[in-house]
Write a structure and sequence with these properties.
19% strand; 226 residues; two-stranded parallel sheet; single chain; 2 domains; alpha+beta
Length: 226
């Protein structure tokens, strides 16, 4: 790659990736690295992508369905590799005017380590079982929808880890201890700032707006001080 000179750099990668992979850990103090090494990342996800054949129609069942066959709330069950709980996001033609197509995405919480421990054949079969189980669950709301599907694809925590490079494929950043490290990284390396999901209050669109504005102000103040 080409070297680009800049007065400041903002990383929107995971805070653990920013420190240990995208920058030189030797540039940080031992105390800071000790704090960073204790950061816990949140769990990852699995998703099944379901494409409906062109020309087919499905009933309007809502945009977002939270479903579960678990007899009671159980955090461990939500993360289990064979969880019976999932969310269906349904996209109708109105979402993309001019394209009369339907798409459904099933999302499940998941642990990276559970999938990483599987041998290749077991990984493939477990992934296929997840897809099959998802279609069975979906048919509770859209009977016989299986006959209308022409595309099925799935992503696991390993998929997210490969393509996003986030630590253990985390979908929701870090636990709360990541916030202080994120907010003080510029004190360790002049001109280096971080913005991202570091604690639930900084997750999703709310975090992108609130935390983004906060860090943008920090960067502006830093550049004006040069």
């Amino acid at each position: 790659g080409a070297f680009k000179k800049a007065g400041a750099v903002v990383s929107n990668s995971g805070i653990t990736n920013t420190i240990f992979q995208l920058s030189d850990p030797g540039q940080y103090s031992e105390e800071f690295l000790a704090k960073a090494s204790k950061i816990r990342v949140n769990n990852s996800s699995c998703q099944v992508y379901i494409g409906i054949k062109e020309g087919e129609h499905i009933d309007h069942i809502g945009d977002l369905l939270f479903t579960s066959l678990s007899p009671e709330f159980d955090s461990a069950e939500l993360l289990d590799i064979n969880t019976r709980s999932k969310t269906f996001s349904v996209y109708y033609p109105k979402t993309r005017p001019g394209l009369e197509r339907y798409t459904i995405v099933a999302s499940m919480n998941s642990n990276y380590d559970d999938w990483a421990a599987l041998e290749e054949q077991d990984y493939r079969s477990t992934k296929q079982h997840m897809i099959d189980r998802t279609i069975v669950d979906l048919e509770r709301y859209l009977p016989a929808v299986k006959t209308k599907i022409d595309w099925l694809e799935a992503a696991t925590p390993l998929t997210f880890s490969r393509y996003t490079l986030h630590t253990k494929g985390t979908s929701f950043g870090t636990k709360f201890e990541g916030l202080d490290v994120s907010r003080t990284i510029f004190k360790e390396v002049n001109g280096l700032f971080h913005v991202g999901s570091v604690g639930i209050i900084m997750s999703g669109w709310l975090g992108a707006i609130n935390y983004g504005v906060i860090v943008a102000n920090d960067v502006d103040g830093y550049l004006r001080s040069l």
